[in-house]
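User: What would this chain look like folded?
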Amino acid sequence: MNIINEVRLRVWANQPDEFFEEAIVDADGTIAGTTGECKEGMDISYKGIWGYHPLLISLANTAEPLYLVNRSGNCVSSAGAAFYLDQAKDLCLRGGFRKILMRGDTDFSQTRELDR
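Assistant: Here's the prediction, encoded as structure tokens.
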């Protein structure tokens, strides 16, 4: 992810000035069921589905995935999200965005993280 994001910075550098007005960063998790048995990290979700719960942090402006993290199927949507949202923020600032809007459902609205 880090290597791709370093290349992404060079691609962004070729964009027009208005591209950098505002970065809209989305965070979302989904349950990815699997029929495999005994796969590392696989677990049962709150919906009773065996699988994984990947986290996707993306730049909504361009639909670019900035970070994709495979997580255990039994974790909550926001698990580990603050770390990757911070990484996305730093990436967008390095890229030259002047404003950053972060979006996610209520599970991502962690008061402790928002207050900082």
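The chain has one domain: 20-34+43-115. If you want, I can go into more detail on any region.
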